[in-house]
Amino acid sequence: MITRPTEEWRDKVQQQKAAVAAGTLNEAQAYALHLWPESFIDAVDVALDQYEADARWLRGLTDEQAFASVERVVSALNAIDAEHGCIETTVREELCEYIDDVLAEAGVDVDALTARRGIPRHELTDQWRDW
User: What pLDDT does residue 22 have?
Assistant: First the structure.
């Protein structure tokens, strides 16, 4: 089972909120509260929910269908980033890895999929990604 980046972000936010409330962490030092606002995490979860639903049907489907699914989630994440501005380097890497992992877990040979398109695996999302 793949762990969503949003689960980790949400956990870190809750830990830091509790530490701020307990007086053991200064709010200015609670980086997670600023990096991953709840509205951002919720929006990303909605996009990833749809992507996971799409991916369940990808086994045995065409490359175009797999890439269309990736394009949809990346486009949704582009819109989320345009609104929230929260996708920085680490978040980008986590999201790209998650998108790849979901395909692999759905039975898609991501190496073969990207090779047929003539791109390295790590460029799976690059064609559509603004973040």
Answer: 97
CB count within 10 Å of CB 119 equals 13
Alpha-carbon distances, residue 33 vs 30, 37, 48, 103, 109 (angstroms): 6, 6, 21, 30, 37
Asked if 6 and 49 touch (Cβ cutoff 8 Å), the reply is no
Q: Is the dihedral of CA 37, 8, 105, 56 positive or negative?
A: negative
SS3 110: helix
Count CB-CB contacts under 10 A for residue 66. 22
Contacts for 75 with CB less than 8 Å, ≥ 6 apart: 128
Indicate the helix (H) or strand (E) that contains 79. helix 63-84
φ, ψ of residue 23 in degrees (nearest 5): 80, 10
Q: By percentage, how much of the chain surpasses pLDDT 70?
A: 100
pLDDT tens for 25-74 read: 999 999 999 999 999 999 999 999 999 998 888 777 789 999 999 999 99
Cα 23 → chain centroid = 32
pTM score > 0.90 for this model? yes
